[in-house]
């Protein structure tokens, strides 16, 4: 395993050292390479090892105006505080900053064109391989666009896909890939015409949304309107709720991941996908499928001397193992506790900072949670 947790040290350094982070507004850092964005931020290192990162078919050690790190999202009314942005324009514009003019190659992607059924432009495409030491892959994201609400149900159906290919998967895209960027409880791709306000921009265009998603009006529950920037300072006039992408895989195998976002029909208005910091992870299901698995609830957080945990594993017998891991991936404390309804973990003697608490049973990861020691 390459890492235990995402490199929160780098995140903290950027927040502290960047003077533009002083205001309560989303901050954009476009000085990082695609490889750094994927491996140091998006990657959790939990049961996954990433390699061979590329951007738009080239080496990922260069910087692109289509990629950036965002921070301070919670202060700007987003439900996601930080992560990687893939954008069909220059990322400087996302927070309302006029970008410096630089030429950007008009990259294409055949899978997005297949998915949207339209010509595509201005694509941003990240690809990498991942060795998965787990039974499933998961991560969090949301989609945003300046096409809302003026071009809802139009032919400007900007699209993106989060494609995975490898052992056991059979899909309609390159290398038999499957798209896991779908509306909850469906196989419908997330796009302008599938998740929106439920109201067509122009009377008579409803058929475009109906064709893309027969449940488009009902699925408006997943959409956040921002046409007057009343929600936050983002350029985007609308965006989706946070979604979880999830796919069961074969433990111990290597899979290929492709994240792609493109403008459809023209390149006039741009769209972006936000991938949450540290959310790309493997999940262990083997031997735990029949157990009632609950989230790891901890409090107080931030803490000073101890953490309380409730109902860690209702079906486990015997002891639960706990690890506290620092931002360099080092184990700073380990405990074994009898499995009871409430468990207390001491944090006395641990220096101030950000940590991860792992809960394990029979050497399998049950859950983990980030916490802060003050």
> Span between N and C termini?
29 Å
| Strand element count | 22
Shape: globular
Estimate the helix proportion, in percent: under 10%
Average pLDDT over all residues: 80
Low-confidence stretches: 1-23, 287-293
Biggest sheet details: 9 strands, antiparallel
SSE topology string:
HEHEEEEHEEEEHEEEEEEEEEEEEE
Number of distinct helices: 4
Please tell me the total number of domains.
2
What portion of the residues fall into strands of 2 or more residues? 35-45%
Rg of Cα set: 21 Å
**Structure classification:** mainly beta
Pfam families: Por_Secre_tail (PF18962)
Protein name: T9SS type A sorting domain-containing protein
InterPro entries: Choice_anch_L, Secre_tail
Organism: Cryomorpha ignava
What does this protein structure show overall?
The protein is mainly β and 374 residues long. It folds into 2 domains: 27-283, no CATH class; 297-373, Immunoglobulin-like, CATH 2.60.40. Helix content is 9%, strand content 36%. It has 4 helices and 22 strands. The strands form 4 sheets. Strands 1, 4, 5, 7, 10, 11, 12, 14 and 15 form a 9-stranded antiparallel sheet that branches. Strands 3-2-6-13-8-9 form a 6-stranded antiparallel sheet. It has a 4-stranded antiparallel sheet with strand order 19-18-21-22, with no helix packed on it. A hairpin with a 5-residue loop joins strand 18 and strand 19 (331-338). The protein is globular and about 65 Å long. Mean pLDDT is 80; it is low at 1-23 and 287-293.
């Amino acid at each position: 395993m390459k890492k235990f947790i995402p490199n929160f040290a780098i995140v903290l350094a950027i927040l502290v050292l960047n003077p533009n982070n002083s205001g309560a507004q989303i901050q954009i850092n476009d000085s990082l390479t695609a490889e750094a964005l994927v491996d140091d931020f998006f990657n959790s290192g939990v049961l996954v090892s990433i390699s061979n990162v590329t951007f738009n078919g080239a080496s990922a050690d260069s910087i692109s105006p289509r990629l950036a790190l965002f921070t301070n999202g919670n202060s700007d009314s987003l439900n996601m505080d930080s992560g990687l942005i893939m954008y069909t324009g220059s990322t400087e514009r996302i927070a309302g900053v006029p970008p410096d003019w630089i030429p950007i190659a008009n990259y294409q992607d055949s899978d997005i064109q297949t998915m949207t059924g339209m010509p595509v432009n201005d694509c941003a495409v990240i690809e990498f391989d991942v060795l998965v030491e787990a039974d499933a892959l998961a991560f969090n994201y949301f989609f945003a666009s300046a096409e809302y609400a003026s071009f809802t149900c139009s032919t400007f159906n900007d699209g993106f896909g989060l494609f995975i290919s490898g052992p056991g998967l059979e899909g309609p895209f390159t290398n038999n890939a499957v798209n896991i960027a779908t509306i909850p409880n469906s196989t419908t791709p997330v796009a302008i015409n599938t998740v929106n306000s439920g109201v067509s921009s122009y009377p008579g265009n409803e058929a475009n949304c109906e064709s893309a998603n027969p449940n488009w009006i009902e699925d408006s529950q997943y959409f956040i309107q921002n046409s007057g920037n009343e929600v936050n300072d983002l350029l985007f006039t609308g965006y989706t709720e946070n979604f979880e992408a999830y796919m069961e895989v074969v433990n111990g195998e290597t899979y290929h991941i492709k994240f792609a976002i493109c403008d459809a029909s023209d390149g006039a208005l741009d769209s972006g996908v936000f991938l949450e910091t540290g959310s790309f992870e493997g999940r262990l299901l083997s031997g735990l499928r029949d157990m009632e698995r609950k989230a790891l609830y901890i409090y107080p957080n931030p803490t000073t001397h101890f953490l309380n945990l409730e109902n860690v594993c209702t079906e486990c017998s015997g002891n639960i193992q706990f690890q506290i891991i620092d931002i360099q991936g080092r184990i700073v404390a380990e405990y074994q506790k009898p499995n009871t309804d409430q468990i207390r973990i001491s944090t006395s003697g641990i220096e101030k900072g950000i940590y991860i608490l792992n809960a394990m049973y029979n050497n399998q990861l049950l859950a983990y949670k980030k916490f802060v020691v003050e």
